[in-house]
Amino acid sequence: PQEPVRTVIIAFGVLGDPEAAWQDPRRTRAMFTVNTTAAASIGALVADALRAQRRGGGPAGRIIAVSSVAAERVRRSNFVYGASKAGMDGFFIGLGQALAPEHIRVLVVRPGFVRSAMTVGRRAGLAVDPDRVAGAVVRALDTDRAVVRVPRIFTPLMAIYRNLPDRIARRLAF
Ligand SMILES: NC(=O)c1ccc[n+]([C@@H]2O[C@H](COP(=O)([O-])OP(=O)(O)OC[C@H]3O[C@@H](n4cnc5c(N)ncnc54)[C@H](OP(=O)(O)O)[C@@H]3O)[C@@H](O)[C@H]2O)c1
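Above: the input entities. Below: the structure tokens describing the complete assembly.
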């Protein structure tokens, strides 16, 4: 018999060059195709499979979807990436609410800058290694939280940054 599916991690994505991403329409489309369209399509397929498993008497299963703090307030410096992640982030937040009655949980992960293949050659403040993200995800799975930010300092920082007036936010250099 086939092993039940307990956890599905959706962690693919592309970052690309932030200026080429809006100046070259093919790159704009590619960013949204991978980060938004593919993520939501696969999320819907996974949700369908987990619901069928549950209806068949199997375990509820859960989905971990890797978004980004960049999705929380789209910034000029990487707005195509930020907007593409905002689309998938909103989808998975809503999917978690839609699946809650069936006890299928969705955790949306919003890391800041992570040192990975995606960010080779780039630098940013508050950078973390992938194992820090993994540790935060494992801890969040023990709670009922729908969202986890890594590092944790982003929770109060984003509460402020999300509410800054545009005329101030656009002057911040990040
Ligand atoms: N690194 C960061 O600072 C950071 C911060 C916040 C959020 N994130 C998010 O974290 C997730 C993982 O990123 P990462 O840092 O681990 O970057 P990564 O090492 O570049 O991993 C990205 C993954 O996405 C896959 N992928 C990209 N385009 C694909 C396509 N068209 N079809 C199939 N697979 C594709 C890549 O597969 P291949 O290796 O086969 O190309 C790779 O496994 C992404 O969703 C990213 O947006 C990253």
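Note for the figure: The chain has a mean pLDDT of 96.
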